[in-house]
């Protein structure tokens, strides 16, 4: 067992720490050392005594984060521009099907080919660094599956390495996921301190994320690239909205853009995030019309369940419980009462119950647990 090996051989940890602390060490080697230390942090000893009551995880993070941040110091836009020039030079030999660099037999790599391979390597390092930073933000909730994920990427075989364009997309995605994990962590701090002390930055971030989404949607990228970036952006908006609450700087087109994306892209995970993102927006005071638009949209999802997945239905129900939990809200009477939402919920009970029973507890335990809770709350809410 890996943990036992490191526990029995503390010199392994010290060797890795020496690599991380050595400023002259190769950055790839340093990041890989950070990945290993992150995976075995439960048995890492930074003190000479096992009786030390210090927060080892926090102390380890103080060592790792500067190295990981250093790995991000790379001008991706400049690299992309030079890569385009290299590809257009005619001095690169690419495989017709995979677009991998395939030099002629017994011929050395050209300078252009060496440059592009270097860009791919650098982007792979950045992606791993971002995953590790994202992991540090949510260490308490991490899963072994996630740990295995960045290990697999770090040890990716050269034959499976993505092209530069794919790497750039993945880097943007990892960056947004890292931001999302940071925002989730800030939401867990009592009083949401970060959102209050950095309100201006948080407000600007909301608009920046919508700008990114607009640019991606209008640039006609490949479908997988578009979906990956948009889903990461929407995840950030969801976490950011929960923190900003009444300070969400909503523009007239924001809700329409989210609902339109829901209709346009039938990706369950993205649709769940969109519904979740609409929740904090709907709870804003003095904006009854926006609440009505969101409320009608969500009730439509619940009434047309054959077009909605169980995960989306569960998120939609949770939105209803949160948004319409108090008759004192200014939008409750003109939207919930006059819109006859309660009667619609009563009519939905039977089909929601059937949906919940159809979820295999053995195959999808987490979803079944959340669905059971949503059904129980539906009856209580009514």
Write the layout of secondary structure elements.
Elements (H helix, E strand, L loop, with lengths): L1 H7 L1 H12 L5 H13 L16 H16 L4 H13 L22 H27 L6 H11 L9 H24 L5 H5 L1 H20 L4 H22 L9 H11 L3 H15 L5 H16 L6 H14 L8 H6 L3 H17 L7 H17 L1
Counting structural domains, the number is 3
Number of strands: 0
Shape: globular
The SSE string, one letter per element, is HHHHHHHHHHHHHHHHHH
Question: Compute the gyration radius: what is it?
Answer: 24 Å
Helical content stands at 55-70%
Distance linking N and C termini: 52 Å
Mean pLDDT: 84
Q: Uncertain runs with pLDDT below 50, 5 residues or more?
A: 140-162
Major sheet details: none
Question: Pairing-aware structural class of the strands and helices?
Answer: mainly alpha
Number of helical stretches of at least 4 residues: 18
Percent strand: under 5%
Organism: Rhizopus stolonifer
Protein name: SYO1-like TPR repeats domain-containing protein
GO molecular function, one term: unfolded protein binding
InterPro entries: ARM-like, ARM-type_fold, SYO1-like, TPR_SYO1
């Amino acid at each position: 067992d890996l943990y036992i090996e490191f526990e029995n051989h503390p010199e392994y940890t010290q060797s890795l720490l020496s690599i991380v602390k050595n400023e002259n060490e190769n950055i790839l080697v340093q990041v890989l050392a950070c990945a290993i230390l992150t995976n075995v942090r439960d048995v890492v000893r930074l003190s000479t005594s096992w009786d030390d009551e210090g927060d080892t995880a926090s102390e380890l993070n103080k060592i790792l984060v500067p190295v990981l941040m250093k790995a991000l110091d790379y001008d991706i836009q400049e690299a992309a521009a030079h890569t385009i020039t290299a590809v257009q030079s005619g001095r690169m030999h690419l495989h017709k099907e995979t677009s991998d660099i395939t030099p002629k037999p017994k011929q050395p790599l050209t300078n252009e080919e060496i440059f592009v391979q270097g860009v791919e390597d650098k982007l792979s390092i950045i992606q791993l660094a971002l995953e590790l930073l994202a992991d540090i933000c949510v260490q308490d909730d991490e899963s072994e599956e996630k740990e295995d994920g960045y290990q697999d990427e770090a040890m990716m075989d050269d034959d499976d390495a993505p092209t530069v364009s794919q790497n750039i997309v993945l880097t943007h995605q990892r960056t947004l996921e890292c931001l999302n994990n940071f925002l989730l962590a800030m939401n867990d701090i009592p009083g949401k301190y970060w959102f209050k002390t950095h309100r201006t930055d948080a407000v600007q971030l909301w608009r920046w994320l919508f700008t990114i989404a607009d640019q991606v949607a209008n640039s006609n990228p490949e479908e997988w690239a578009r979906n990956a970036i948009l889903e990461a952006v929407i995840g950030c908006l969801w976490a950011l909205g929960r923190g900003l609450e009444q300070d969400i700087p909503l523009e007239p087109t924001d809700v329409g853009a989210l609902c339109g994306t829901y209709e346009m892209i039938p990706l369950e995970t993205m649709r769940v995030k969109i519904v979740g993102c609409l929740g904090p927006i709907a709870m804003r005071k003095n904006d009854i019309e926006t609440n009505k638009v969101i409320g009608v949209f969500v009730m439509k999802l619940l009434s047309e369940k054959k077009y909605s997945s169980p995960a989306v239905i569960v998120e939609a129900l949770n939105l209803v419980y949160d948004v319409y939990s108090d008759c004192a809200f200014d939008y409750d009477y003109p939207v919930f009462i006059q819109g006859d939402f309660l009667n619609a919920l009563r009519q939905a009970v039977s089909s929601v119950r059937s949906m919940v029973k159809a979820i295999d507890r053995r195959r999808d335990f987490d979803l079944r647990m959340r669905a059971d809770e949503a059904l129980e709350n539906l009856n209580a809410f009514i």
